[in-house]
Each structure stands twice: as C-alpha cells, then as structure tokens.
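Private note to self, pasted from the team thread so I don't lose it. Backbone tokens:
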C-alpha cells in the first residue's frame, strides 16, 4: 500500500468503523473516500489490513484475479479475530467445496439460480410470507418484524429449495442460530451443531438419491460438469450447509433493513403503495443504500496491483472491500446519500462483483421483492413502533443485522 496516504486525523483506524446510528453510515466514509481511499486499518485480531472505500477501487479488488479469497488461509494473511488462524477458510465444509473446484462448483449450483427457476419459487415464497404475516397479526402489535418474518422466511425458503421436510425445518432454524451467533453458544454446542447438521445433510443426500424430487439436492445428484463428472456426496452435503449459512442471515438482514429504510421516511412507503411497479427498483435501491452491511469482503493481494485511485496495493496485503462505502460514492451514484426508489441503472456492489459475487443473489432479490409486495398488500398501514434513531444493530458479528424491528399496523 502506498505510504503517501494516511487516514484523516488518525495514523491507523480500528476496523470495523462505528456508525452513529443503525440507519446511518460511519462518519469517516466521506473523508476516507476523498483523502485516503486506501486506508491502513487494524482489525479486531490486531492484524493490519487496507480498507477500500471508493466504488472503482472496490469493484476492481473484487474482480481482479491478482486479488483473491484463496490466499486468506495463508499465514501472512490478516485474520479478522484473534485465534481464527484461517479456520473460516479451512473448515470441513470449505474443504469439501474447494475439492470440487470453485468454478466447477459455481457452474453446477448456479444452474439452479435461473430467472425462470426464481419466478417459479414466487408463489411458494408468497404463501410462506402470508402465513408468517398471519402469525404476526395473531401475535398482535407491536410486533418484531425480524423475529416474526425476516428471520424465519429465508430458512423456510432454503429448506424448500433443498427438499427438507416440513417437520425438520425447526432443526434448520436451530442450527442456523447456533452457527451465526458468536456469543450465545459454547464451542461444544458449535461442534455438536456442525456434527448433527453434517450427519443430517448426508442422510438427506442418500434419501434424495433413493427417491429424487423437484429440489436442488435431487438435481445436483444427477448433474454433471462439462466433463461428465458428478458432484461428490461430501460436496452435496456441504452445498446444503453453505446455502443455509450464506443465504440466511444476510437475507434476513436485507429484509429487515429494507422495511426499516422504507418506513423511516413515510413518503417512501406511501410512494410504493401508490405505484407497485417500483418494487423491483426500490429493492435495488435499498440494497445500495444499506448504510452498514457489515465487515465487507476480504481479498489477499497476490501481486502488486494499482487501483483506480492511484494507490499500489503491495503483494501480501489483506484488503477489506467495503461495498457499503462504495455504494455511497458520489462519483458512482448521483445523490448517493439519498434514497431514489426509481434509480435506474443501479450497479451497486451489495452482492459483490466478479467470480466470487454472491451465487444466491437472484434468490435474495426474489425474496425481498416478494416480501415487500406482500407487506404492501397485507399491511398498507405498517409503520415503525419506535423512532428510527432508537434502532440498534447486533455488534460483534461479521454482519451487523438489526437487533429487532418493532412495527405497528
């Protein structure tokens, strides 16, 4: 990293940066983008990294093969937390998927996430959402939209995709909560959850092999790559685990923040009530506007690389790509700090970019659009039950979802 740039007012910033409120971005972003787009930061582990905040820099870092996720297990790569020692990138699930080859695995699984397949899922997602709204209405107001809708829906959707029986879906919710909570469960609890989940998925693969249905696991069992090779049983089970872990918390967070952003300014909600054709562009704008999508994506620099801002990232540097900061870059988006529900085009980076962009983004978009349509239809008077300034985010996680979203109707 160039030695000529330093972050304003600090020699090295502690990362992640604090935000003044749940729906506001860190105050440092504008200065960093303007004066120090490649900023030295210290991670919770104490390791040093380089923070990128400009759109053009982040997009290049996520797309350029000279920067990759593959190097993050190296001993010289920065760790997010102390004692992590690369475990995130060297778990049994990661090893099973890596053994398949990243590009090969993405091609095989990505065939499921087509526009046609996503459209076919809409009636089932809509029915699930209606059922959860019914339960929330029965609970009475105020109600927590996160607990009643945004948290359970993605689990139900993924279970439906994988062909998990209805009777087993509560187990998936329990496993998901265990994996994603860093403080609530002991190491023994985590190990037991990983073991039980792995055993369950292996048995599900065997069941689908005997009796295939119209679901992702059944399709992958018979699918082959361009050379006629099928996916291994270990990778099939790991795929189910990866989809639950990667797609659940992020989608739950997106749904919750979507509702919070749209309800924080009543004119936004009223505009959507008057023009449902804006639902698709509104979802994209919320994804762009999301003020604090968590840690960002890490990349390891394999060879010296100059980014558009003019800074050279030196080999061996660990880079933190802040997609949320990039999405507020005024050089990339007009009126970047304002919500424009009709913004088109909207090339935001909420799902990353390049070969490691989020595989499940078509599903996340479909869920968000469907949920928003159902809420507008079922609860046109939906409103926040607290001042937006009182909303809180979960601290201490790689992602930073809202703790709760109290609503009335």
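Design output:
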């Amino acid at each position: 990293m160039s030695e000529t740039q330093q972050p304003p007012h600090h020699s090295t910033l502690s990362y992640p940066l604090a935000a003044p409120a749940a729906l506001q971005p860190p105050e440092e972003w504008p200065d960093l983008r303007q004066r120090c787009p490649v900023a030295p930061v210290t991670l919770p582990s104490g390791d040093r990294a380089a923070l990128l905040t400009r759109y053009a820099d982040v997009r290049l870092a996520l797309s350029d093969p000279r920067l990759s996720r593959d190097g993050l297990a190296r001993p010289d790569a920065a760790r997010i937390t102390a004692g992590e020692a690369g475990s995130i990138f060297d778990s049994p699930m990661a090893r099973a998927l890596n053994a398949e080859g990243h590009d090969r695995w993405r091609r095989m699984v990505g065939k499921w996430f087509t526009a046609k397949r996503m459209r076919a899922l809409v009636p089932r997602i809509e029915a699930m959402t209606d059922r959860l709204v019914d339960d929330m209405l029965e609970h009475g107001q105020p109600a927590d939209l996160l607990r009643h809708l945004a948290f359970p829906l993605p689990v139900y959707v993924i279970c439906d995709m994988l062909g998990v029986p209805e009777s087993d879906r509560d187990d998936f919710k329990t496993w998901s909560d265990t994996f994603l909570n860093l403080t609530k469960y002991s190491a023994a609890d985590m190990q037991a959850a990983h073991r039980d989940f792995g055993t369950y998925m292996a048995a599900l693969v065997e069941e689908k092999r005997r009796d295939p249905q119209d679901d992702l696991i059944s399709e992958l069992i018979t699918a082959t790559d361009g050379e006629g090779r099928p996916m291994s049983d270990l990778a099939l089970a790991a795929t189910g685990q990866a989809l639950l872990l990667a797609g659940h918390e992020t989608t739950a967070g997106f749904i919750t923040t979507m509702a919070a952003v749209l309800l924080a300014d009543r004119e936004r909600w009223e505009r959507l009530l008057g023009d449902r054709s804006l639902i698709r562009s509104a979802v994209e704008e919320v994804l762009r506007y999301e003020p604090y999508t968590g840690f960002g994506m890490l990349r390891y620099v394999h060879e010296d690389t100059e980014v558009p801002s003019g800074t050279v990232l030196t080999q061996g540097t660990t880079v933190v790509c802040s997609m949320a900061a990039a999405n507020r870059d005024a050089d990339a988006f007009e009126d970047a700090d304002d919500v424009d529900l009709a913004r088109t085009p909207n090339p935001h980076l909420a799902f990353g970019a390049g070969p490691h962009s989020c595989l499940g983004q078509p599903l996340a978009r479909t869920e968000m659009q469907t949920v928003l349509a159902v809420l507008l239809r079922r609860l046109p008077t939906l409103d926040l039950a607290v001042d937006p300034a009182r909303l809180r985010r979960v601290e201490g996680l790689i992602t930073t979802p809202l703790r709760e979203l109290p609503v009335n109707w």
